[in-house]
């Protein structure tokens, strides 16, 4: 395997499981030093030990805690080159008329504001070094909307809008900001969903199967590499043909 990330220092949020773990593994395999940011301290430690990386327990909904995690990572690694913002939750899967507003806010606190906190926290180090790659994990739901998943769909649409804006903002700084929009990928997040919703998502994928975490990690690795130097503010689709725009 090529070593595109030799000497690079990466952060992966939600890196202890699912898509985040697959991304962390891919970056590490290609030479990066990886910091696993995750709410689950034990899982983060286990993942980091396997990758020879750094475990940083963090609550991304707290800007103060994210700032502390960024400082800790920069001190340990000497800088920050890559952020893969993968941490997220689904929230309730119910009609809007039944959706608890505290649940709606919680989804936005994690999926949008938590992601914004992480983007914001790594920028000083990237601006200082004059290099950066930010990859925000959105969702096909942010493009098309999924019924009974209004908070999740809206939060991921907001991630796409934020990514486009920040990509333009940093376009002359040698820092690219892109989003990846997976369709359904079988990960522990499926445990938060009813089977009927999982069946619905599968029915919408023309390829007739779920994606794999390795397929998403491959796209993320490209967006996080020097090869993606002329791509920013872009949404890289990984939906098995569900969305072709």
UniProtKB/TrEMBL annotation:
- Gene Ontology molecular function terms on file: 3-oxoacyl-[acyl-carrier-protein] reductase (NADPH) activity
The record ties this protein, via Pfam families, to: adh_short_C2
At the top of the EC hierarchy, this enzyme's class is: oxidoreductase
**EC identifiers of the protein:** 1.1.1.100
Q: Which is a GO BP term held by this UniProt record?
A: monocarboxylic acid metabolic process
**Among its keywords, does the record have Oxidoreductase?**
yes
Question: What family does the entry list?
Answer: Belongs to the short-chain dehydrogenases/reductases (SDR) family.
Question: What's the protein name?
Answer: 3-oxoacyl-[acyl-carrier-protein] reductase FabG
Organism of origin: Hartmannibacter diazotrophicus
In the UniProt record, the gene name given for this protein reads fabG_25
